[in-house]
Every structure is written in C-alpha cells, then in structure tokens.
Specification:
By secondary structure, this protein is of the alpha/beta class. It contains 11 helices and 20 strands. The protein folds into 2 domains: 219 residues, TIM Barrel, CATH 3.20.20; 127 residues, Lyase, Ornithine Decarboxylase, Chain A, domain 1. Helices cover 29% and strands 23% of the residues. The strands form 3 sheets. It has a 10-stranded mixed sheet. An 8-stranded parallel β-barrel has the order 2-3-4-5-6-7-8-9, surrounded by 5 helices. A hairpin with a 5-residue loop joins strand 12 and strand 13. Helix 1 packs across helix 3. The longest helix has 19 residues. The structure holds pyridoxal-5'-phosphate (PLP). Pyridoxal-5'-phosphate binds next to loops.
C-alpha cells in the first residue's frame, strides 16, 4: 500500500462513551459531516450508534440521505441535517424521516409545500442565530418564523421537533459571547413556547461546549471533533486531558532512501538545501492526499523512532525528509500523525506547522489515500481484525 489512513473504531466508541459519561443523560448526536471529518461517514456513524449515540448529524441533506441509504434506518437513529439551499431535496428528506433544520421563511415555505405534496408531516427544527452570525434566524425575525411554523403544525404539515443554536466562541472559556448566546437562546425558546411550540429537544453544545460548559447541554449534545479524539483547541488541553484518544493515523512507507552531497537543493524551489552530506527519505504523500502544502519545511514525521521535518516543499504526491545520514530501508514506515503510542506527532502538531486547526488536518485527508478501519473490539460490527476499504467507504 502506498499510504494508509487507519481509523480505530474502538477508539471512536471509547471516545463516545467518555463524552456520554460527562453529559448527564443528554441524548448524543454523532456529528459525521464531511465524511466524518475524513474518518469515513457510515462506519463512524455505525460505531457511534454502537456506543450509545441515538442521533446522527450532518450538514447537507445529501449526506443525510446517504446515511439512510446505507442502512441507518429511522428505527435505528434520528438523522438531522442543517444546511439547505433553495430547491433542496425536501420531499426526499420527508420520505427519509430526516429532522430538517429551518432558519428562514423561504425554507419553511419549501418544506411545507413538500409536505403537502407528499401527504406526510415533515420533521423540522428551528435554528436560532443567538450570536454566531452564520446560519440561523435573527431574533428580530424569530417571532414570525415561530408563528408560521406553528400554523404549519396546526395544518398537519410539519412537527417542530427541536429548537437549536450554535456557539461562536465555545472554545474560549469565559468569552462574553457564551453567556450572551445562552441568554438569547432562553429568550428565543421562551417565545417559541409562548407561540405554542413543544419541541422534543433543545440543543447547542458542540465539542468545546460539551467539554467546558455543563449549562449548555440541554436535551442533546452535538460533539464532532472530540469524538474523533482531538481537542477542539490546544488551549483546552490535549486529547488525553479529556480522556480522548485520536482515531486517525496517517502513515506511508518510505519510497526511497538515498545519499546526497552537501549543498543539494530539495524539492520545488530549492527552499531546503542540505547542510552537508546526508540521506533523504521520500514520503509518498502530498497535498493531493490532503497533506497541507502550508506545512512545507515544518511538518513533523516519525521515522525509525525519530521526529524528522519535511525538507522543502510538499508536492502534490510526495515530500522529502532529511534523515541526517541514517539509512532506514525503503518500506520503513513514516508516521505523519496518530494517537502518539509510538511517539509519533499528533494532528495538532501538523495544525501548528500549517497554521490551521486539527479539524482541517484530519478532514482534508482522503481522496486518494485508502482508509483502513480497524476494529479491535469483539462486539464491534466489523468483528475482530481489520478490513480495508476504499476512500469513499
Ligand atoms: C460541525 C458542527 C458541530 C460539531 O462541532 P465540533 O466542534 O466538531 O464538535 C455541531 N453542530 C453544528 C451545527 C456543526 O456544524
């Protein structure tokens, strides 16, 4: 194999259990958007359900429909999606029993029309913009949305199953926007109740809120990154500080090891020049596989027990590390990041090297790299051992 992304489903389940243990009976929505942050959407959703999640959350309706098509039936899990565009597949969403987020009157009009056409009630959740300033309904427009949703409920076209919102700065404990958003959510919820809505769930908590804000748990929590074993922000501590274990490992065998003289330029642009005679190792991974080009000259790699640094530019398919005269044989594993058991770097180290966040490091890996789901737990769906699946499994 040229390279592999290993996904430890046992670690994912353990992370879900660890997060559930601290959420006091709130229902657990496993957020598996963007192919489960690069970890494989269906396999991760299945593993999270085994560990006690009862909801699965994704951004787009197409992701939600893919989950249903893969066998995550309404009997097994509620599936919610929150990013709709005009003309979106509302009818398919109703038929697939999705919980569909509505932030605006245009979406309410489209979903009620689809409900009328199918003769079935749509399950919708109203999203409040309590301060994030992204998706969601502004407080000034909320009463109108609530009243029209209630009217559609009376007509038998929709059931408002939830009220929800999303934090802007939950990863900065003490940030004044956090209390302001919670207060606004309470006010907007009160207006919805006064308007006659009786939502089954209210929810706000992403991973940083699950880890730091017990008052934001409400009836349901929506952790994403923490389930994949990463800390939402380095300031909130390491994964281990939260009892979490990174789920993804990215590794590749060295494709070439060779001696070069001093003064030799390495990779495009010759941004790295060998200081003296040395050895170079070729790692067959590049930005075409999601390794960020911004980590050129900086990304860390474990080779033969030692951290090496990307020498020069990361190219589309490959990059080079300076092995300092050592000559591990071709085929020796180069580990870019993983849980750290063997002393390898973590996704956070790559995030720092590339000037980004751990979320982006894991989410962008994929495309061409085969994903291998490893399931060491005997009661896991996949049974003991490992199985290799294509990048789109
Ligand atoms: C992505 C997302 C989450 C999960 O966020 P994490 O920070 O990964 O826990 C929760 N809710 C919504 C609306 C999201 O878009």
């Amino acid at each position: 194999m040229r390279a592999r992304v290993e996904i430890d489903l046992g670690a994912l389940r353990a992370n879900v259990r660890a997060l559930r243990a601290r959420t006091d009976g709130a229902a657990y929505m496993a957020v598996v958007k963007a192919d489960a942050y690069g970890h494989g959407m269906v396999r991760c959703a299945e593993a999270a359900l085994q560990a006690g999640a009862t909801w699965v959350g994704v951004a787009t309706p197409y992701e939600a429909l893919e989950l249903r098509a893969a066998g995550i039936t309404p009997e097994r899990a509620r599936v919610m999606c929150w990013l709709w565009t005009p003309g979106g597949p509302w009818r398919e969403g109703i038929e697939a029993d999705l919980d569909m987020s509505v932030s605006d009157l245009w979406a309410l009009a489209e979903v009620t029309e689809a409900a009328r056409a199918t003769g079935r009630r749509a399950r919708i959740q109203l999203k409040a913009d309590t301060g994030l300033g992204r998706n969601g309904c502004q407080p000034a427009d909320w009463a109108d949305l609530v009243d029209k949703a209630r009217a559609a409920e009376r007509e038998g076209l929709v059931t408002v199953t939830g009220l929800w919102s999303h934090f802007a700065c939950a990863d900065e404990p003490g940030h004044p926007s956090i209390a302001a958003q919670l207060a606004r959510f309470d006010e907007m919820s009160a207006r919805a109740y006064a308007g006659g809505l009786r939502p089954e769930v209210r929810h706000m908590a992403n991973s940083p809120a699950v880890l730091t804000l017990p008052e934001a748990r409400f009836d349901l929590v929506r952790p994403g990154i923490a389930m994949y074993g990463l800390s939402p922000a380095p300031e909130l501590g390491t994964p281990a500080d939260h009892g979490l274990r990174p789920v993804m490992t990215l590794a590749a065998p060295l494709a070439l090891v060779k001696h070069v003289p001093g003064g030799h330029g390495v990779s495009y642009g010759h941004h790295y020049v060998t200081a003296g005679p040395t050895t170079l190792g070729l790692v067959p991974l590049g930005y075409g596989d999601g390794v960020p080009r911004h980590a050129s000259g900086a990304g860390p790699v474990l080779v033969d027990g030692k951290w090496r640094t990307v020498a020069g530019r990361i190219a589309m398919d490959q990059f080079v590390v300076d092995l300092g005269g050592e000559t591990p044989p071709e085929g020796t594993e180069a580990v870019l990041f993983g849980p750290g058991d063997r002393g390898e770097p973590g996704a956070e180290d790559w995030a720092r090297a590339a000037g980004t966040i751990g979320y982006e490091i894991v989410t962008r890996i994929g495309g061409r790299v085969p994903r291998v789901h490893v399931d060491a737990e005997p009661h896991g769906n996949a049974g003991p051992g490992a199985d290799a699946a294509g990048p789109r499994d």
